[in-house]
Design goal:
By secondary structure, the chain is of the alpha+beta class. The chain has six helices and five strands, in the order E-H-E-E-E-H-H-H-H-H-E.
């Protein structure tokens, strides 16, 4: 199965370079990707919002977390975010994303399986 996801330029370039290894997502009204169904070996096609270039990456594994903090503590900030920073700063960054804070509040975490993080094989990432 292949999934199409949009990315801003900085995280797109970081995944391409292999420095960002995890893409954390939550479902929103604009994004109906079934993150709770992603599986190892499937492919994500990332579209750079700035350049419109495409890049594919294979899913190594998927993990779901109840909070952003748990994901960042377990996976490491440098693997999850291209911006760096502290856990507290990065939680604020996630909460600024459209609909994220609203959807991250209980009981949605249990219902939607929010904060799915998939590891991407950066070595398999190729520009289409």
């Amino acid at each position: 199965m292949k999934y199409n996801l949009n990315l801003n330029n900085r995280p797109f370039q970081a995944i391409k370079a292999g420095t960002k290894k995890i893409e954390g997502r939550v479902p929103t009204s604009k994004d109906k990707t079934p993150y709770n169904k992603l599986k190892r070996g499937e492919v994500i096609i990332f579209k750079n919002n700035l350049t419109r270039k495409l890049m594919s990456a294979k899913i190594i594994y998927v993990r779901h977390y109840p909070t952003v903090r748990k994901m960042l503590e377990k996976e490491g900030v440098k693997n999850v975010l291209s911006s760096g920073g502290s856990i507290a700063q990065d939680i604020k960054s996630y909460n600024k994303l459209s609909e994220y804070q609203k959807n991250n509040a209980p009981p949605h975490t249990k219902v939607w399986g929010l904060n799915g993080a998939c590891f991407l094989d950066a070595h398999d990432a190729t520009t289409c």
